[in-house]
Structure formats: structure tokens, C-alpha cells
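Quick review question:
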């Protein structure tokens, strides 16, 4: 059975979250026969890597001890077949928790490793990444959240299959946000 890792970066995770509604529509339409593992970023105690934490992490990597709870998110990620990231469009990209989460995934010798030429090689099972977002205005060419995720996952983990779904212009005066969201959901086939 296919395993989908649903990374929920929605600040409001109930029916009020437009991003979550769009992501749930994707999961309902495309992941009926999948095992869905959900990670709610707001419920994690994610902090930036600092000198002391990084030293501990590097020592565990050096010894190859990936059983440490510090690597739980990376292990879960590495085992997934598909990753669905739902994040509202904030400040031209995504909420800061997404970056903190992504830092947890980048573990040399667990999720990727460098070959003899220095090129990163993916060690994950992930075949596809789906990025879902909603925005108050248009995203246009400033799709920096998806661009970052796509660059990271393709360069470090060698993922080649990406999909992007969005509902944009939800807060523009005169727009009908419910109609925009419904139209975005209908594009998920």
C-alpha cells in the first residue's frame, strides 16, 4: 500500500483553513487507497538548528545512529512514497515552520548522501511531491515556496515528479473566495 506523508502547515486546521480544505480535497480524490501519515507542524516543537544541537546531530550521523528521536521526522519522510505539503502562501513563500521542518529532513547518510564526486544522491523512497497553497492575492512569478521545495527535493533527494495546486486571489475585494476554492478543487482530477 502506498504511503502518503501529509505535511500540514496550515495555521488553522479546521474548515476555516482554505489551504487545508484544498489539501483534504486532494487527499480524498487521489489518496483513497493509501496509508496517510499526517504531520501537523504546529503541534511539533520545531526549533532552528543551533551549535549544540547540530553537534549532537552530527555525532549521531558520524556513528550512524539514526535511532535517536531527533531523526524521527527524517525516517518517516524517507519511508514515504509521496509527500503532500499544504502551506498557506505567506510573505512570498510559506510559514517559517515549513523551513524548520525541511531542515529536519536533510540528514546526510539517512535521506541523502554525497557520492565520490560530491553530488548529493537521494536515499528516500519518495517518488512524488505535491505542493498545495492558497493566497489572498495572486502568486504569479513569485512562487518562492514551491520553487524552494522543488529545488530542495530534486537536488538533494532526486525526486522528479512534482504537482502544484493553488487557490489564489481569495482576499481580493469583490472576489468570491468560495467560488475560487471550488474551482481550484475541481482542477484536482
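Suggested answer, residue by residue:
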Amino acid at each position: 500500500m502506498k504511503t502518503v506523508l501529509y505535511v500540514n502547515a496550515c495555521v488553522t486546521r479546521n474548515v476555516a483553513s482554505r489551504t487545508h480544505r484544498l489539501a483534504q480535497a486532494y487527499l480524498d480524490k487521489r489518496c483513497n487507497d493509501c496509508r496517510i501519515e499526517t504531520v501537523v507542524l504546529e503541534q511539533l516543537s520545531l526549533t532552528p538548528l543551533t551549535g549544540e544541537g547540530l553537534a549532537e546531530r552530527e555525532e549521531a550521523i558520524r556513528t550512524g545512529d539514526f535511532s535517536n528521536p531527533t531523526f524521527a521526522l527524517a525516517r518517516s519522510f524517507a519511508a514515504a512514497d509521496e509527500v503532500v505539503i499544504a502551506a498557506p502562501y505567506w510573505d512570498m513563500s510559506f510559514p517559517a515552520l515549513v523551513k524548520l521542518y525541511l531542515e529536519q529532513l536533510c540528514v546526510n547518510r539517512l535521506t541523502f548522501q554525497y557520492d565520490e564526486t560530491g553530488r548529493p544522491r537521494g536515499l528516500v523512497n519518495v517518488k512524488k511531491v505535491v505542493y498545495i497553497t492558497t493566497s489572498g492575492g495572486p502568486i504569479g512569478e513569485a512562487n518562492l515556496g514551491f520553487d524552494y521545495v522543488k529545488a530542495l527535493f530534486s537536488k538533494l533527494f532526486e525526486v522528479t515528479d512534482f504537482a502544484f495546486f493553488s487557490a489564489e486571489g481569495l482576499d481580493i475585494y469583490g472576489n468570491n473566495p468560495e467560488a475560487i476554492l471550488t474551482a481550484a478543487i475541481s482542477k484536482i482530477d
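Why it works: The chain has one domain: 3-186. Helices lie at 18-30, 51-63, 72-79, 96-105, 144-157, 177-186.
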